[in-house]
């Protein structure tokens, strides 16, 4: 199927606006939760809360950053007491990063605040439209999450 260039350009523009607004809101919610939080660090916490312990390389792939960058972020989160490193059971040389109890509480607090914000934004929408939006976003995200050349899924635990 071919798409009209204006339609694709408009969609790309709307995605960019959505991503900027979500990043700004995530940053504000994260800083309210902890003043030293960065948006990227909250993203790592949210991923760990959703997926469980992960290898640092998988977290780097998820975040779209280099392993040294994610290593610095994880060190900061570890210093704040939000994550801990565990030995991987399947490979004694590897480590997994897991949320601490404090990290799970913080991730849940920020997620609850994000849910409240989303509920407020959509309160005037008909329920059917919200349901349709959720279905379409899930379909889009599923297609977008397919393995890419940039990241190998071989390093994931429990993928």
TrEMBL record:
<protein>
    <submittedName>
        <fullName>MarR family transcriptional regulator</fullName>
    </submittedName>
</protein>
<dbReference type="InterPro" id="IPR023187">
    <property type="entry name" value="Tscrpt_reg_MarR-type_CS"/>
</dbReference>
<keyword id="KW-0238">DNA-binding</keyword>
<feature type="domain" description="HTH marR-type">
    <location>
        <begin position="8"/>
        <end position="142"/>
    </location>
</feature>
<dbReference type="InterPro" id="IPR000835">
    <property type="entry name" value="HTH_MarR-typ"/>
</dbReference>
<dbReference type="GO" id="GO:0003677">
    <property type="term" value="F:DNA binding"/>
</dbReference>
<dbReference type="InterPro" id="IPR036390">
    <property type="entry name" value="WH_DNA-bd_sf"/>
</dbReference>
<keyword id="KW-0805">Transcription regulation</keyword>
<dbReference type="InterPro" id="IPR036388">
    <property type="entry name" value="WH-like_DNA-bd_sf"/>
</dbReference>
<dbReference type="GO" id="GO:0003700">
    <property type="term" value="F:DNA-binding transcription factor activity"/>
</dbReference>
<dbReference type="InterPro" id="IPR039422">
    <property type="entry name" value="MarR/SlyA-like"/>
</dbReference>
<dbReference type="GO" id="GO:0006950">
    <property type="term" value="P:response to stress"/>
</dbReference>
<keyword id="KW-0804">Transcription</keyword>
<dbReference type="Pfam" id="PF01047">
    <property type="entry name" value="MarR"/>
</dbReference>
